[in-house]
Amino acid sequence: MQEKNRDFALSALFIDLGTGDVQKTTFDPDLSCSFLGGRGIAAGLLAQQPSAGPLEDDAPLIFSTGPLTGSRIPASARMMISAFSPLTGAVCSCSVGGRLAIMMKRAGIDLIRITGRSKNRTVIEIDNQDVRLITSTIPVDAPLSSIFDSYRSFKGSVAAAGHAAFLGCRYASIMVDGSFASGRGGLGRVMAAKNLQAVAIRGSGKTKVYDREQENLARTDIIRLFDASPAIMGRSGISRYGTAALVDLMASRRIMPTANFRRTFFEDYRSFSATRIREKENPKHHACHGCPIACKKKAGRDIPEFETLSHFGALNENADLASIIEANTICNEIGVDTITAAATIACLAEIRLQRYTGNALTGKVREITSAKGDGELLRMGSAVLARELGAPEKSMSVKSLEMPAYDPRGVYGMALAYCTSTRGACHLRAYPIAHEILRKPVSTDRFSFSGKARIIKIAEDLNAVVDTIGACKFAFLGASLEEYAKGLSAVTGLSYDTHDLLKIGDDIYTLERYINTLRGFTRKDDYLPQRFYTEAGSHGPGIDINPIDSKDFEEALDRYYRIRGCNADGTITKERIRRLGI
Q1: Tens of pLDDT along 249-269?
Q2: What's the pLDDT at 6?
Q3: DSSP one-letter string for 257-275
Q4: Domain residue spans in the chain?
Q5: Closest residue by Cα to residue 496 from 64, 67, 41, 12
């Protein structure tokens, strides 16, 4: 990295809901350049309180934008919401779209750090430089759409926690602008524990760009690469079909989790495929601010993403598209993570030797916020539910976070990535599906751990950077970090190259793992459920989905630890901690 732009300093609001104190501050330029924003600066703040309980008053809830937010660099309107997870106890940060990041930037805010607990249910209203803490008059059981509707004339952006969060659901989400979810890990529960119902932000300022000419060149290069990418703009790409385009592909590769991961192929997967959705719903494009990909789809209401389609579909052996869409709508209205909700219902179904499909499935989703039926059990998430019912092995989770819609027996890179992820079973800390299935940038053997430890480590570092600069991971199915480094340099005046950014990503990911170490996580938490080492998946024509060899997995995990700078027990070495500067 060359000489730093000394004018680059992150602007922050520190809000204590217990005292009502609001402080406006600016981070030191060296700290700002080291962490850049987004996930990086959030990790730095969480590291200041590494042992805080997720629901304690002093545990921070952090909203942080990236340095590209508000620029003309494509697919850069993302931001991070971060805290300690009440579902897992680990570090948790979620990338979320919508207009919240843009409104924060236009109000001159890079980061909001919220601590304390309000005596009354509260809404934080930010109108440019004016910050108000208002006692909420919105009923706690109001559907989230009514909260967003009530702020329509505000003409800003709103993040809100729903009824499930205030009932103590451990996987409650934070919804943004009605359609965008900070879903995983239960950050909505953290928000509710602070008695904070919503954050509404309106900004009318302009974001600064260091070099407009270079910004435009970087933008042109990135859009050209998007247009050339079949995965993004192709006939079956995510721009045309949304993430539902993955349904057929994952089914054909025999990696579609079915019946709570007892099988890996669902015979009726076409009932919720992208083409069926197009025929039945005729959805329209819906995008984050300024994004040319427009991967989200709406047909009056939100069309579910791939993970939601697959889990409310195959994972629960449900072929009823209408009930899948309805389940997604209910989750968005009550504010819960669709992946964990669907996986928890599937776990309960296996324990009880039942199936919940169609109306029975949507009925279970409604029970999450009900005093009747299985609501109390379902609000726990699958790991605690399974322990309570005496069958902990039925929870398909890592670090108590439920696995997404890629069965690891058919994608060994994903098997390793689920386990090394700092927030639990997650496909977004690394995304080996890109090379193991989509064959981008190159193809790797999906049934081998060879080379995967280093590939996963690099992917984790890359995605930490993507989450830090405010970009969308889908962009990297076409463009690369080289183009985004040029865009970052143009926007900020900070001369970073790919190597510099990957070094920052390595520091961020290692710091997150170190925080988890201080919170009691070790090697014992880096394993898949036993099912994946002992039970085969669903074989298909020319495809055998065998159990993962536990010895091969152990060797891959050992290699990962050496590359990441960990001891054999998964904790960070003293030398690597020293280099972090902690």
Answers
A1: 999 999 999 999 999 999 999
A2: 57
A3: -BTTTTBS--TTGGGGSHH
A4: 11-202, 230-402, 406-477+497-582
A5: 67
Sign of CA dihedral 145, 146, 147, 148: positive
Give mean pLDDT, residues 155-161. 96
Whether CATH 2.30.110.10 fits 406-477+497-582: no
Averaged confidence pLDDT in the chain: 94
SS3 content of the chain, % helix, strand, coil (to 5): 45, 15, 40
Question: Residue 34: pLDDT band by 50, 70, 90 thresholds?
Answer: confident
Give the burial class of 19: count Cβ atoms within 10 A of its Cβ; 0-12 exposed, 13-18 middle, 19 or more buried. exposed
Could you tell me which residues come within 8 angstroms of residue 250 by beta carbon, excluding any fewer than 6 positions away? Answer: 256, 306, 310, 405, 406, 437
Q: Do 11-202 and 230-402 agree at the fold level?
A: no
Give the E-state strand segments of 97-243 in sequence order. Answer: 111-115, 122-127, 130-135, 157-161, 174-176, 180-182, 196-202
| Model pLDDT, residue 441 | 80
Residues in the chain: 582
Please tell me the predicted confidence (pLDDT) of residue 1: 47
Phi-psi region of 261 (alpha: psi -120 to 50; beta: other; left: phi over 0): left
The H or E element spanning position 402 is strand 401-402
At residue 2, does pLDDT exceed 70?
A: no
Helix (H, G, I), strand (E, B) or coil at 578: helix
The sign of the torsion formed by the CA atoms of 201, 204, 208, 214 equals positive
Backbone angles phi, psi at 54, to 5 degrees: -55, -35
CATH class of 11-202: alpha beta
Distance (Å, rounded) from C-alpha 273 to C-alpha 313? 10
Residue 290's φ and ψ, nearest 5 degrees, are 70, 15
| Eight-class DSSP state of 525 | G
- What is the rounded CA–CA span in Å between residue 151 and residue 80? 22
CA distance 307 to 535: 23
pLDDT tier at 5, thresholds 50, 70, 90: low
How far, in Å, are 203, 359, 562 from residue 182 at the CA level?
21, 27, 32
Peptide bond into 441 cis (omega under 30): yes
Edge to edge, what strands does the sheet with 284-286 contain? Answer: 284-286, 296-299, 301-302
> What is the token pair recorded at 532?
């994946």
Q: Which residues pair with 16 in a beta bridge?
A: 21, 115
Of 434, 437, 447, residue with least CA distance to 543: 447
- Quick one: CA dihedral 437, 442, 443, 449, positive or negative? negative
- H-run or E-run covering 63: strand 61-65
Residue 365 exposed, middle or buried by CB count within 10 Å (0-12, 13-18, 19+): buried
Domain spanning 230-402: CATH 2.30.29.30? no
Which two tokens mark 57? Answer: 């008053």
Tell which residue, 43, 76, 202, has the closest CA to residue 492: 76
Is a pLDDT exceeding 90 seen at residue 159?
yes
pLDDT at 331 over 50: yes
Cβ atoms 359, 326 nearer than 8 A = no
Q: Cα 264 from chain centroid?
A: 23
Q: Could you tell me if 424 and 397 are in contact, meaning their C-beta atoms sit under 8 angstroms apart? A: yes
